Structure formats: C-alpha cells, structure tokens
Amino acid sequence: MTHRNEQGFWEWAYGDLLSNTNRGVLAEYIVATALGIHDTKRVEWNQYDLEFGDVKVEVKSAAYVQAWEQSRLSTIKFGIRPARGWDSRTNISATTARRSADVYVFCLLEGEERDRIDPLDVEQWTFYVLSRHELDRQVPEQKTIGLAPLIAKFGPRKCVYGELKAAIHEAAAENRGA
C-alpha cells in the first residue's frame, strides 16, 4: 500500500451491513439521522449510544437474516442488561450496574430473504421505542428480551423512521413523569 485509501478501507472493513457489529452501528446512525444529530461522532463503549438534548438514547438492533448461512431465521432478542457504564467525558465508570439511557430504541431489520434485504433502506426497519422507566419498573435485572415479550409486556411505541423523533420525545417525557 503506497498511499492512503480510506474509502477502500471502509468498504473492506465495514461493507457487510448484515454483520451484527456493523448492523448495530448502522442502526445507531439511522436513529441519529432521524434525530437530526449530524455534528457529533459515535463514541465507542460509551454508557449510551446517542445524546439528544438532555435525552440519553440506547439503540439495540436485531434481524431475522444474518451475514452467515442459516438453517433457520434468527430469533429476535435484544440486550437490556444493567451495566456499569463508562462516561467518555469524565473517563469514569459507574460503581453500580444500572441502565444509563433514558430511552431505548429497539431496531428490527425486517425481511426474511437475504437477496431482498437492504440495511440502508430505512423502510425495511421497524422501530420500537420504550422508556427506561418501564424496563426498570418491570424487569430491573433482566439481561435480554425477545421481540414478542417486549411487545406484549411493555407495549412500546412501534414506529417508522419518520416517527422516531416524536416517539423518543414521548418516551423521555414518560421518564420525567415517573
């Protein structure tokens, strides 16, 4: 390599948007764009994924189809465990495990046919928005939750890309009213 080829690197390292890691980062980016967050960069390992005004947002992603060959579609589960979050601004980790975000956005990349899935098409994503208060109130120590229990037990706001900003505002208001 005789010169820097940043675009080539991005394509080589992150071109598979179905892989779990890349899909998760893409989901964060999609939510950030829905919120109009364009002036900050993603902070790896921060205690929450996005900050929108005074609202801290955690983004989780899942898909039925994975980057690898599958004998059956994946069961949809999201991580929700309390953790000792690290604050990138202060370089300090929390002393106790808790959920650091105010709002959770569970992003589901729909589709069951690999050839038809385009992770960059926001119309192929469904979003479920829920306040942290509801998680803490009903499942304070739970580590994961499946899609069906999430919907049945919590009734999160199901929305499309264009409705995300309003749904996040509503969930944040629920936290303040709790």
Automatic annotation (TrEMBL):
It comes from the Bacteria. This is PD(D/E)XK endonuclease domain-containing protein.
